[in-house]
């Protein structure tokens, strides 16, 4: 993906010397947002306020990144908000775009660690902002490996889908890859589906060859010597339908799925926040378990990364159990580090019955934590 410039925010202000209006010269590109002096920026920019990056050009349109260190709204006050903004004010036809945000721990290596990515969205002059109010929790960012020397770097990758009606007759530019869209349409329409799964009372149709190509467990189950491999109707135990659908969505598109919305009504705003967080954490944990069960390693790592970035005192214990049970070393280290750096959090967690369960069932975890605390001392 071509480079589309870099913006540097230093101590709450956009650096004037930052290169701007860099044109990727293609229908896709990425822009880097470097935040230096994160702590002071967080103090200077209050909730509901944001800092805009320098403009950059991808797909013939001008864009910028909106960074809100204390969230864009009261709902997201505990989070960092990230949005992509279309700057063109004369767009005659909606621009279809796919974009995502990721951490870059070392800019020269360009090895992105997933934060959030989207399905295709339409931007226009009247609907010019898309993104995530709750891109990453502040406490998770502050305890993560991504914040080094009070600084971090975010990469925003943008892919603009061309309107074929506007392409010159003599143009020879190769269209962007769209196999993800095609496979997602196949999954949604169920055309040619040749196997069904009964999950928590719901029936979900899929395609054997796609599942087998992406999961060695499905390969063995659907085409191997296992008893019942030829069956077209499979019962799935110990999994919710929304989790199974999310896993299949990842199998078809190789993109991290969005959690299905719960229509339950909650009156208080704070209660909404707490319920949404608890629901999302449970969904992520269940999705990790599903990924491990079907040996989908990339999805498993994405879940580990998401859980490690968003854990708090209420979820660290259950996350630690999941990590130990499913051999997630990266996630386990993140949980133990969360407890190590915050004595008050550790004390609160150790007073729970869940922690007692961990010490009895997984004594090695307690030994590792003691070793980490000893090394800190």
TrEMBL record:
Q: Gene3D superfamilies recorded for this chain? A: 1.25.40.420, Apoptosis, Tumor Necrosis Factor Receptor Associated Protein 2, Chain A, Potassium Channel Kv1.1, Chain A
Pathway annotation from the record: Protein modification; protein ubiquitination
What stretch or stretches form a coiled coil here? none
Q: Which GO terms describe its biological process?
A: protein ubiquitination
What SMART domains does the database record attribute to this sequence?
BTB
**In this protein, which residues make up the domain named BTB?**
193-260
Q: Which Pfam families match?
A: BACK_BPM_SPOP, BTB, MATH_2
Identify the residues that the record assigns to the MATH domain, covering every copy.
28-158
Family statement drawn from the similarity comment of this UniProt entry: Belongs to the Tdpoz family.
Protein's recorded name: BTB domain-containing protein
Organism annotation: Triticum aestivum
